[in-house]
Specification:
Keywords: Hydrolase, Signal. With 273 residues, this protein is mainly beta. The chain has helices spanning 182-188, 206-216, 229-240; strands spanning 5-7, 42-43, 59-65, 68-73, 78-80, 95-98, 116-119, 131-134, 137-147, 153-165, 168-172, 193-197, 220-224, 245-248, 253-256, 266-269. The model is unreliable at 1-49 (pLDDT under 50).
Length: 273
């Protein structure tokens, strides 16, 4: 029997991040500020869902592992985030996004069946900008800087990728190494679901990540890039006394819609495959 999880929450403003001076999205392009109707999460049995099992105005999200998620739209568009040669979904996605930090976040040999391979950096360190539609999915990015192994700075080495489908905004923070500025938050706009690295060392430290997430005010936070349960638990402890609810799911796939976002901000822990 297939199982899936439907989720809910208060929809707050899409906030942002910039290493390049890009204008904020036009107001007409941003997700409208709405309040979800349903005050609680509903759970149903499921495994990873092909797009054919999604209902209209839904988005499927499956945690593959490390920093890789599979995003699926009702129009059949599939995206693998931080696509690499070590952790991959079982299918060849239509879109693959990558980040520069190291080789668990990018691939030198992506599957030739991928239609769009989106690198979150340029080798000359100039900004790379995406503003594209693939079927019923819009994809944009906001660049941030990363540290190199000697402690120096690689400008524009990371992209926060933003995905919009079914009136939902999903942000993948990638290998975020620093706090977001007010300009960053303003450029992102409202983010409904944020996929956040919480290892606390290779990326931003735990206190810094908590600060970023609270500034984003996203209804749903999904941790990634945490290596072991001890690291994950340290991050969750920082939220235990805050306004966030903590939920652990048995299965790696969630189905989101605007109507079923949680009313109370929620950290949802998914098992990686």
């Amino acid at each position: 029997m297939m199982r899936f999880v439907t989720v809910c929450l208060l929809v707050l403003p899409c906030l942002a991040s910039v290493a390049w001076t890009a204008p904020a999205l036009a107001q007409a392009d941003r997700c409208p500020k709405l309040v979800a109707k349903n005050p609680f999460l509903q759970s149903l049995e499921t495994r990873a869902l092909p797009a054919a099992y999604l209902q209209p105005r839904q988005v499927g999200l499956t945690y593959i592992g490390h920093s890789t998620f599979l995003i699926e739209t009702t129009g059949g568009v599939t995206v693998a985030t931080d696509y690499n040669d070590y952790v991959r979904p079982d299918i060849v996605p239509r879109v693959a996004t990558m980040n520069r930090a190291h080789m668990t976040h990018y691939s030198l040999h992506p599957d030739p069946g991928i239609e769009h391979v989106l690198k979150g950096w340029r080798d000359d360190r100039d900004p790379v900008r995406y503003d594209m539609e693939v079927g019923d999915l819009w994809i944009g990015n906001l660049q941030t800087n990363i540290r190199d192994w000697e402690g120096g700075t690689i400008r524009n080495g990371n992209s926060i990728f933003i995905f919009r489908a079914a009136d939902l905004c999903i942000a993948h923070l990638g290998h975020l190494h620093h706090l977001l500025t007010k300009q960053d938050l303003g450029a992102l706009g409202r983010i409904d679901i944020v996929l956040a690295p919480v290892d606390g060392s290779y990326t931003l430290d735990v206190d810094g990540m908590v600060e970023v997430l609270k500034a984003l005010e996203s209804p749903v936070v999904i941790p990634m890039h945490y290596f072991n349960q001890g690291t994950l638990n340290r991050f969750l402890e920082r939220f235990s006394s805050s306004q966030y609810e903590i939920r652990r799911e048995e299965f790696p796939t969630l189905v989101f819609s605007r109507e079923t976002l949680p009313i109370k901000p929620t950290v949802i822990v998914l098992p990686g495959r």
